[in-house]
Amino acid sequence: MWLKSVDTDGDGAISKAEADAMFAKIDTNKDGKLDKSELAAYRQTAREEQRAKMKAEFEAKFKAADKNNDGALSRDEFKAAFPRMANRFDAIDANRDGKVTTAEVESSMKKMRDEHMKRHGGPGRGPGASAPAVPSSSGG
Which of 28, 64, 117, 129 has the largest CB neighbor count within 10 A? Predict the structure, then answer.
């Protein structure tokens, strides 16, 4: 992901001009140095952009899979659209109605992340730290 974001001409390599452009983008105070706060801000922005992209892709895939446009996916629709998550259908289907909504997926993903953070934590993460964004049905 990082290489693609820096390799603006798509040739599979980072030129000095591309590296300089990335440096200039991160060096927000224009002092010719990258400090911790600038790097942290850049990483946070990159994470938010990636989450937004993933959310949009998820929502588009969900909508395309919703063949009857009822705002929910049957087991077969879900399996076809999200084969890697198909075995979690029953766990995601919180109200046991045989369909999965974006809100149920959002809730399930948040629960999984919260449990992971409890078990594993992470740099700068502890009790009370915010979890990564999840696909949301609220549009924002």
Answer: 117
Helix (DSSP H) and strand (DSSP E) numbers for the chain = 6, 2
Residue 88 class from Cβ within 10 Å (0-12 exposed, 13-18 middle, 19+ buried)?
A: middle
Reported as a pLDDT band with limits 50, 70 and 90, residue 128 is very low
Query: How far out from the chain centre does Cα 76 lie?
Result: 24
H or E, element range at 43: helix 36-65
CA-wise closest residue to 62 among 50, 46, 54: 54
How large is the average pLDDT for residues 82-111? 93
* Residue 101, token pair as written in the block: 């909504």
Backbone phi and psi for residue 67, each to the nearest 5 degrees, phi listed first: -60, -30
Q: Determine which helix (DSSP H) or strand (DSSP E) holds 101, and give its type and residue range.
A: strand 99-101
pLDDT computed for residue 2 by the predictor: 72
